[in-house]
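anyone seen this seq b4? input:
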Amino acid sequence: MITIGICEDDIEYRKVLCNYCQKILNNTGEIREYPSGDIFLENFRQKNFYDEGGVPDILLLDIEMAGASGIDVKKRLARLMLETRILFVTNHDEMMEEAYGKYVFGFLKKPFTYEEFKQKMDDIMEDVDRGRRKTEIITGKHDRVTLFLSQIIYLKSAKPYTEVYFVKKGSVLKKLDERGIKRWEDELQFENFFLIDRSYLVNLEHVENARENKIWLDNGMELKISRRKKTIFWNLYKKYLLLYAK
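predicted toks r here
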């Protein structure tokens, strides 16, 4: 079930967005309303937003509000490495540059039609579904850890095993999996993971920047792409950006 949050201080626009969301969800999801950025962040402090159902999957976010702005809310989510997809709704074109960032899926300039809204939301909801795919880390005969693929930042060969680095509750953790890196490459070949050299299998979703033969991950790690993998990486990464990057 998809959860959509509406953080908008204009009550009339909040009603419009709520009606639009009800049409899209068709009673298959949950809508939460926040009349200000301050109230959204207060909910943040009172609840464990890392737990399932805590933070909305999608947040419709006004940029300029009294108190905490939409930019403030976006930065708070980014600092905690939460994957809420953000769609800004705004009157303020001049603030859009500052509002860009990871998990920002675009902007809607008020006023907008339901058709414009639905077009944006269809892409975001597809991305939410993609991010819910799971895998298992096998750490022992009777010990397995289930993760969303989107939690995994990268995997590192530790022959004959693999170190899996992933995000949980805002921290980067590591688990040792019994399988080798080649097995992981085969398993994740259709899931936007790429083996940049013999040792590192990276999740393209966590690539913050890429230049020439280097990539920077969103946990601050810098990695080098092997010479023979460079062309393949860039072809795949460009396709990934066209499909998913906003």
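Residues 114-131 form the longest helix (18 residues). The two ends are 23 Å apart (CA to CA). kinda curious what u guys think
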